[in-house]
Design goal:
Layout lengths: L1 E4 L8 E4 L12 E7 L2 H8 L16 E5 L5 E5 L11 E2 L5 E2 L6 H25 L4 E5 L4 H12 L4 E6 L2 H10 L2 E4 L4 H12 L3 E4 L3 H12 L10 E5 L12 H6 L2 E5 L7 H16 L7 E5 L3 H5 L6 E5 L2
Parallel strand pairs: 8-9, 8-11, 9-10, 11-12, 12-13, 14-15
Antiparallel strand pairs: 1-2, 3-4, 3-6, 3-15, 4-5, 5-7
């Protein structure tokens, strides 16, 4: 079969013949409709992600929309290495049928980034019964934008969207979020907004210096016994792999710092929430821009940057 193949972690994939995936008893292979080129896909393929197994060659891709032999469109993933989802045929352990009205390529582009914020939001709501004020760091990226949309849909009192892209910030303002520019306004504006709105949940897709500025701002707030706990969830590290966490902040405030990602969230938990997230693509709650590339142009897809998510489709 044709597939995107990574032979070298430092090089882009090439379109080449690759052995068919090993069959599962009683299951016919699925046929690719679209597979999103997410940040985690690049990280795993390059060996820089903590879950990489560093074995090559491999087919990249963590999830996809595929067609069954009887013509149904399904969301799927969790392939067995070295097979990923960027191949003509897939063998996977689960299939979730797409809801009516869902654009299959938008699902391919958006399900993975949507799940990252959704899991943290629903966990917080289940724990406390409400979301309160949500601050999203990195709100103009795909995952952050979908986290803003999810927080609004799940009933947050207020959503603060902090990011770098002014056009995306304006779009999020139109959805009901309070935008903060991390370029034009800088750390001082972020700190002033944090002082003003007192977030109870922070979703951090950036880490690095932005996280440190946020910790400093959170540390300036009140320490009253009736002050609500702040849940700080680390999800991505687009601004840096390291950030200093002040000891005084942990001792003087009710703050809990956790992470959400592969390992911190189980596959069973992800699959339990996936149908609800899929429904958000069917009813228009989630809007995801994408750009398609055929398998033969996977090297161009690998170089893709911008506001849209690259999606690999069959030739």
């Amino acid at each position: 079969m044709l597939a995107a193949v990574v032979n070298d972690p430092e090089a882009a994939p090439v379109c080449a013949e690759f052995p068919d995936p090993e069959p599962r008893p009683g299951q016919e292979p699925l046929h690719l409709v679209g597979a999103g080129l997410h940040h985690v896909v690049r990280g795993l393929a390059s060996g820089r992600h903590y879950d990489s197994d560093h074995n090559y060659p491999l087919v990249p891709g963590v999830d996809a929309v595929a067609r069954t032999v009887d013509g149904r469109l399904v969301y799927t993933g969790f392939t067995r290495a070295p097979w990923g989802t960027m191949a003509e045929r897939l063998v996977t352990p689960f299939e979730l049928e797409l809801p009516p009205g869902a654009d299959p390529l938008a699902v391919a582009a958006g399900m993975n980034p949507a799940m990252s914020g959704w899991m943290a939001l629903t966990a917080r709501r289940e724990e406390t019964g409400r979301l309160g004020t949500v601050l999203v760091l990195g709100a103009t990226g795909m995952s952050g934008s979908l986290a803003v949309q999810a927080a609004l849909a799940l009933g947050a009192d207020r959503v603060v969207a902090a990011g770098r892209d002014p056009e995306s910030l304006e779009r999020l303002r139109g959805l009901g979020a309070l935008p903060v520019s991390l370029v034009h306004d800088g750390p001082d504006a972020l700190a002033a907004t944090i002082d003003q709105v007192s977030p109870t949940l922070v979703l951090d897709f950036l880490w690095g210096a932005i996280a440190e500025a946020t910790f400093a701002a959170l540390g300036r707030g009140g320490r009253g016994e009736d002050a609500p706990e702040v849940a700080y969830v680390q999800i991505g590290s687009l601004a840096g792999e390291q950030a200093a966490l002040p000891a005084a902040l942990l001792r003087s405030h009710r703050i809990r710092v956790t992470g959400s990602g592969i390992g911190a969230v189980s596959k069973a938990e992800l699959l339990a929430e996936a149908p609800t997230v899929l429904a958000c693509f069917g009813d228009g709650t989630f809007q995801v821009p994408y750009t398609t590339y055929p398998l033969a142009r996977v090297d161009e897809a690998w170089a893709h940057r911008g506001r849209t998510r690259a999606v690999i489709v069959p030739d």
